[in-house]
């Protein structure tokens, strides 16, 4: 499933593309075919929140194995009850809500949880509007959804946030936000990027000024929208990368949960 933003960007129709996942090999090839050189600039870190209805008092912590059982393609039409996820859970209908398959959030969650791209069941209720996903969970006692943490934080008094068993075997939530920054909320923490068309930077001074302003000031704003600012070192390295005009992607080999400073 193609990502609409990258499709337009690699066709040369956008100066900047915001992204919640790394550009893929086939998208890089499409950019190359169209003569689009790009800069890959990390901006912030986000944690994907797994949420359930306020009445759900049993799904306090889920393992990656349980989430995989719930979401992978083999679950389609077969895993329909909470009890199938864990025999200790009640025999209640499992209702799933998520962003659609052409979004970075869907891509990242699927890769992190199932270990493979596109390895997701399709019999869930999709919605590009993450506030609609929130409302879906609020309105259904047996529902579960995943979405950007900022949408949970805006509605935290009406939802339960599920802890995820991390790589160290500890149940961790993305709140407090420091858990995301310290990379203990893994593997559901992810970098957020902007991709900039280098060709257009050369011919559009206003674009260069805008990107520079964004790089120098975005750390002031990310906390206010529910994201986590990068370490100071990362912003310095990203600005230097921009000033050098360094093109291409280094993040393709990064595994979910790896420190972002390793790849700038």
UniProtKB/TrEMBL annotation:
<comment type="function">
    <text>Involved in the system for phosphate transport across the cytoplasmic membrane.</text>
</comment>
<keyword id="KW-0813">Transport</keyword>
<protein>
    <recommendedName>
        <fullName>Phosphate-binding protein</fullName>
    </recommendedName>
</protein>
<comment type="similarity">
    <text>Belongs to the PstS family.</text>
</comment>
<dbReference type="InterPro" id="IPR024370">
    <property type="entry name" value="PBP_domain"/>
</dbReference>
<dbReference type="InterPro" id="IPR050811">
    <property type="entry name" value="Phosphate_ABC_transporter"/>
</dbReference>
<feature type="domain" description="PBP">
    <location>
        <begin position="7"/>
        <end position="216"/>
    </location>
</feature>
<keyword id="KW-0592">Phosphate transport</keyword>
<keyword id="KW-0732">Signal</keyword>
<dbReference type="GO" id="GO:0042301">
    <property type="term" value="F:phosphate ion binding"/>
</dbReference>
<dbReference type="InterPro" id="IPR011862">
    <property type="entry name" value="Phos-bd"/>
</dbReference>
<dbReference type="Pfam" id="PF12849">
    <property type="entry name" value="PBP_like_2"/>
</dbReference>
<dbReference type="GO" id="GO:0006817">
    <property type="term" value="P:phosphate ion transport"/>
</dbReference>
């Amino acid at each position: 499933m193609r990502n609409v933003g990258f499709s337009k960007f690699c066709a040369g129709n956008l100066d900047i593309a915001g992204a919640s996942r790394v550009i893929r090999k086939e998208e890089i090839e499409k950019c190359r075919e169209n003569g689009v050189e790009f800069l890959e600039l990390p901006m912030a870190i986000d944690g994907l929140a797994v949420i359930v209805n306020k009445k759900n008092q049993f799904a306090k912590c889920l393992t990656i194995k349980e989430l995989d059982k719930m979401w992978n393609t083999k679950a389609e039409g077969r895993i329909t009850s909470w009890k199938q996820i864990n025999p200790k859970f009640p025999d209640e209908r499992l209702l799933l809500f998520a962003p659609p398959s052409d979004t970075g959030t869907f891509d990242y969650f699927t890769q992190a949880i199932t270990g493979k791209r596109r390895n997701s069941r399709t019999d869930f209720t999709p919605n590009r509007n993450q506030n609609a996903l929130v409302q879906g969970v609020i309105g259904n006692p047996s529902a579960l959804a995943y979405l950007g943490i900022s949408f949970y934080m805006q509605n935290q008094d009406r939802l339960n946030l599920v802890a995820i068993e991390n790589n160290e075997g500890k149940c961790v939530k993305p709140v407090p936000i420091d858990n995301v920054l310290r990379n203990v909320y893994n593997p559901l923490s992810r970098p957020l990027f902007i991709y900039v068309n280098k060709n257009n930077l050369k011919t559009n001074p206003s674009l260069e000024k805008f990107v520079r302003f964004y790089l120098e000031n975005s750390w002031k704003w990310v906390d206010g929208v529910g994201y986590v600012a990068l370490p100071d070192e990362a912003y310095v390295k990203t600005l230097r990368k921009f000033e050098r005009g360094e093109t291409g992607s280094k993040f393709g080999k990064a595994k979910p949960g790896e420190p972002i400073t390793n790849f700038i």
